[in-house]
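User: Just a sanity check before I run the rest of the batch. Below are the structure tokens for the first item. I only need the designed sequence back.
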């Protein structure tokens, strides 16, 4: 029994799921907590309203001001509308500053993400993944630096660049507002842009972010300036995990396998073994995937790898690994349903908001339990994967095909097979013989 199993659980206000991993929940108020999945849906809905409402609000308020130029109400309405739009512009400038300085000081910036929620569009550049999400309230520039003595100062310079960019834009905008005729629209826009960038500067360097796993630039800078000198082993470990994770974001499975296996002592790292398993899974090499997930779980349980601190993040990784092991055993056609159910139940009890966990639970129901319930759950998981990888959608369609076959709904089974092939032909080529064997066993029984 793990420590997290004895802790008091909190309940998500959105989906009602419960977990003792309280630090992973987003706290909106004292009595309102949201699991990561519900929070993403919430900010996605808000983001869609933003993109629908604010352009209309700007156009409408501009027209109303021309109709009644002395109305304070229309002026305030215009200020609110442009304030939100200019915040998006300031966030983009902030993240571009991080990106530019990271490259100038010899680092890499493999991913730049603007906003929260589901991605609106994604662009894979030569060395950087650019992603613009539905709710443009936050930004993230994922930067990596070679492990050497200058790593700390490179990181400090990169972290400070975003806030300093906003400070420079604020000073420029306020200077232009001062030089513009008083009461003109140009004066109003420059003044508002200056205020927005000033606020973002103070929030970045002196504020806090109420999101699990995210820390403001200012807090990270102070932590780096006053922290002890990190040893070379720690720097190497962070760099290798970061590079492997970047390859995972770019969906390059063979590159993940090659890179992780080239890292020294990768067998002693929980996260590197986990990422190596993901590389094998994307290549449909499920025996290797299962081996490395079990190896990572053994490292976590034995405490050999102390790079993951004790707490909710470590327990989260534990439940993810248990779910991955259950999925690996399903993919290899293991028939020990009780063992697989136990692993999935453990993950569902703590991180049931994760789409991968719910998809594995649906697959268990399809193969060993209530096929109708598993079918509905898998369709819900497929809807969540619409903005995810084609590989994951192909897996969902493969299990849907199995469910339709069991329910004797052959036209839908054929349609699911065709969609699985269209998403990732390699996945369907792996699962097709397994499904045929399942069908033959069912016919024999």
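Assistant: Here's the designed sequence for the first item:
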């Amino acid at each position: 029994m793990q420590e997290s199993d004895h802790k008091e659980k909190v309940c998500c206000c959105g989906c009602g799921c419960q977990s003792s991993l309280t630090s992973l929940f987003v706290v909106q108020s004292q009595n309102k907590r949201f699991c990561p999945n519900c929070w993403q849906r919430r900010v996605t809905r808000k983001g869609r309203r933003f993109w629908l409402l604010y352009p209309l609000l700007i156009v409408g308020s501009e027209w109303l001001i021309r109709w009644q130029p002395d109305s304070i109400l229309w002026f305030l309405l215009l200020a609110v509308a442009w304030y939100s739009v200019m915040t998006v512009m300031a966030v983009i400038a902030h993240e571009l500053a991080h990106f530019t300085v990271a490259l100038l000081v010899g680092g890499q910036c493999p991913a730049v993400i603007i906003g929260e929620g589901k991605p609106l569009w994604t662009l894979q550049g030569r060395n950087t993944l650019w992603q613009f999400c539905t709710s443009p309230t936050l930004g993230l520039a994922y930067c990596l630096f070679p492990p050497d003595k200058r790593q700390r100062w490179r990181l400090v310079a990169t972290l400070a660049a975003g806030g300093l960019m906003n400070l420079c834009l604020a000073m420029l905008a306020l200077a232009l507002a001062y030089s513009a005729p008083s009461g003109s629209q140009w004066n109003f826009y420059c003044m508002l842009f200056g205020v927005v960038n000033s606020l973002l500067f103070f929030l970045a360097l002196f504020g806090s972010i109420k999101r699990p796993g995210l820390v403001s630039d200012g807090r990270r800078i102070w932590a780096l300036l006053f922290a002890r000198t990190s040893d070379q082993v720690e720097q190497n470990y962070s760099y290798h995990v970061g590079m492997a994770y970047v390859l995972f974001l770019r969906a390059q499975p063979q590159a993940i396998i090659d890179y992780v296996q080239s890292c020294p002592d990768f067998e002693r790292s929980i996260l590197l073994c986990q990422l190596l398993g993901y590389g094998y899974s994307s290549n449909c090499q499920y025996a290797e995937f299962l081996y490395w997930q079990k190896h990572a779980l053994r490292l976590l349980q034995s405490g050999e790898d102390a790079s993951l601190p004790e707490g909710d993040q470590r327990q989260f990784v534990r439940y993810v690994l248990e779910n991955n092991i259950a999925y690996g055993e399903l993919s290899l056609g293991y028939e020990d349903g009780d063992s697989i159910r136990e692993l999935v139940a453990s993950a569902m009890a703590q991180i049931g908001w994760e789409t991968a966990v719910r998809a594995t639970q649906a697959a268990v129901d399809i193969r060993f339990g209530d096929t109708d319930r598993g079918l509905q759950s898998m369709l819900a998981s497929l809807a969540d994967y619409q903005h995810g990888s084609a590989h994951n959608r192909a897996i969902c369609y493969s299990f849907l095909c199995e469910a339709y076959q069991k329910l004797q709904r052959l036209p839908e089974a054929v349609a699911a097979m065709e969609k699985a092939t269209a998403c990732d032909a390699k996945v369907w080529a792996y699962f097709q013989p397994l499904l045929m064997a399942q069908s033959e066993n069912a016919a024999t029984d």
